[in-house]
Specification:
single chain; mainly alpha
Length: about 160
């Protein structure tokens, strides 16, 4: 991956990162079908990862602390099931006023500030993810679609 991408993910805001992804889609001449999926999907993920990065509370889908938002971490969270789990983790954390369901140090978790989940929630509900009951599955067709989106993102990064 390009060194510029690492700096971008480590330092920039959601709009800047998604603009670069959007421009890369155009440069690579990807189908408009993928552009309509990749950019909103990226924005949904970044809308929560960037605030976690800025508050030094980033974690992997396995719940382990990481100090840097990298393209690899972004790709790990681009798995649809992982993203759904992240949404529920942050919703519960917003209610509790501290970061839950991770292996981060308790003192670090206490510094958590509520994150706006509206972009992520809109995106997930658009693909029929039930945002009330975590254990309910989403249609397999939506999961398969997002595997394709993840593959396009991988090729861009």
């Amino acid at each position: 991956m390009k060194k510029e991408m690492y700096a971008l993910f480590d330092n920039e805001n959601v709009d800047t990162i998604t603009d670069v992804i959007s421009k890369e889609l155009i440069t690579r001449n990807e189908s408009p079908f993928w552009g309509d999926k990749v950019v909103p999907f990226s924005r949904a993920i970044l809308s929560v990862l960037v605030p976690l990065r800025d508050n030094d509370l980033l974690f992997t889908p396995e719940g382990k602390y990481t100090d840097t938002l990298t393209p690899e971490l972004f790709l790990k969270w681009s798995d649809f099931l992982s993203l759904k789990t992240l949404a529920f983790t942050l919703a519960q954390s917003n209610e509790a006023g501290k970061l839950l369901r991770t292996q981060l140090d308790e003192k670090k978790c206490d510094t958590y500030k509520a994150i706006d989940l509206s972009d992520l929630g809109k995106y997930l509900s658009r693909y029929t993810v039930n945002l009330e009951y975590e254990n309910l599955d989403f249609p397999i067709a939506n999961y398969n679609l997002h595997q394709g989106v993840s593959n396009v993102i991988k090729s861009l990064l």
